[in-house]
Amino acid sequence: MVEREVDGHAPTAVVDASVILTMRAKLPEFTGALQRVAELVLADPANAARSTIVELAERSGTSPATVTRFCRALGFEGYADLRLGIAAETGRARAAGWSVDIGREIEPGDPLEKVLEQVMAADTRAMHDTAALLDLSEVERAAQAIAGASRVSIFGASGSALVGEEMQFSLHRIGVAAWAWTDVHNGLASAALSRPGDVALGISHSGQTRETIEMLAEAAGHGATTIALTSFPRSALAELADVVLLTATQATTFRPDALSARHPQLVVLDLLYVAVAQRTHQRSHAAFQRTAQAVDPHKAAKHSGVH
Q: What distance in Å separates the CA atoms of residue 248 and residue 14, rounded to the nearest whole number?
């Protein structure tokens, strides 16, 4: 198993990356009044940055003391520091050209042009946030483990299962023995056969999907190096894993966090796939050529003169 390096731990990357990302990552830890403050700020960060501590407390139905506790939970000395951090971040977003106010509702009657703009803006912002959030040293460790693995087991449920199957397909094309398990019984049986030198990858946006946690834990118990792909660094799945790869999301109406996480997850796994291919270049190149030749006869024939 790979030992996690303290200075490469994922939560540090969250704090360094972004005030909003830190807040979003910590949201599951907050309850009651602190959660209300967090949700209000996340709903409209720019407005929160313009508000006084009393105004924010009133709108969240809390007190100035609660807002101060919230700031300290995020690592700030007080509300003034939090306001400066949010203001700087929203200013960078405007400078980067985020013309759409992400987080606003998509109404049932909105024209498709507006919906397209909103979805594109949300996905683009999520990609940029993921790039800021991702700890590349963790990607390096994951790639090294997969490149040397005797087999790779990939676990996920629902939408995460589809992402896992895409990763399995990519790894197979370059000669990595990988299997994606979506049924918990089959996944647990496979995980029970894990041994040192194997790799197990668990995918869950929330990091709280019970089946995925169980399968990854079973693999870990038999010596496999474990990797978690999640949006929450303090989730049960992340705490279980040797290596944690983090993604960011931008939810919109009709596209909750779990669904909007799909594209950032695919981007991170694409990066991981390329990193594995780099480390196994000769084997990967030969395998890719052989697999391409195997399927080439099934491609539609090209006829001259057909338009």
A: 10
